[in-house]
Amino acid sequence: xxxxxxxxxxxxxxxxxxxxxxxxxxxxxxxxxxxxxxxxxxxxxxxxxxxxxxxxxxxxxxxxxxxxxxxxxxxxxxxxxxxxxxxxxxxxxxxxxxxxxxxxxxxxxxxxxxxxxxxxxxxxxxxxxxxxxxxxxxxxxxxxxxxxxxxxxxxxxxxxxxxxxx
Length: 166
What we know:
Layout: E1 20-27, H1 31-39, H2 41-47, E2 60-64, E3 76-85, E4 89-96, E5 110-120, E6 123-131, H3 138-165
Antiparallel strand pairs: 1-6, 2-3, 3-4, 4-5, 5-6
């Protein structure tokens, strides 16, 4: 399967991939500004989750969100910066803090999130690839469905709001 670079921006042609979520969104802001929203902790906290982010490969930190017991999500995400190319790509690993505790059906969550920025006209095409869902795990299938809707709606809208206010 090829990586989607174009089209209408919804990524709907990948809806049947139960292991990966893909979202593409045009943002009417230059890549440098979008990059700041992805990598400056005070801006990141406004549209995603608060955490002690540092643009440094190997840096580990936690982010806190609303727990979702129906998917086994504890509400605490352990994050590790895996790689980046300034103003072009950011890759992080997300794991649920309850992983390995054995008391949470969704604790198998171990995902890679990659943001890619491509200049497009006067703005930026932002691509999100969220990989690592286990389609054989009912809690992971539910997380895939919920997060797919969340990335495409509230998260992207929050990012657009932060960018507009910068």
